[in-house]
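Changelog note: in this version the structure field was regenerated for every chain. One regenerated record is shown below for reference.
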Amino acid sequence: MTTRAQATGALATNRKARHEYQILDSWEVGLALTGGEVKSCRAGQASLAEAYAAFEKGELFIHGMRIQPYAAAKSGFNTHEPDRPKKVLMHRRELDRLAGTLQLKGHTLVPLKLYLARGKIKMELGLGKGKLLYDKRESLRRKTEAREAART
């Protein structure tokens, strides 16, 4: 799945997600977007910085994902609310399994990447478990050691 995302290029990434959470599993999911949102995403006007996924009445929505209104659209026509919740498109079995997993303490769904795949806008959604402060320090230490080893 990540090779497909890397080949097409990311429209938006959540850089802090892998620092804040230990990603246990990930899925490629679709999003229900309006036409103006699709055009804005393709223009690189999407942000996943504070986005998270949550269940509402048995359906999964992305909250906090900001997509700027499409600049070339006429005022009032084909415009959208930048912070509106976006519906996630997944199979019912996967949604039911995720709902059970999210009941565990410390687990959350975090959007990792927004990208184009086969002409459609897709999102990589990861199941994350929150890292503690010492876990974050440990991962930073490993990262700097690997960088120094690569230099030598």
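Spot check on this record: Strands lie at 10-13, 21-32, 46-47, 52-56, 59-63, 66-67, 86-89, 107-117, 120-130. The CA atoms of residues 20 and 77 lie 38 Å apart.
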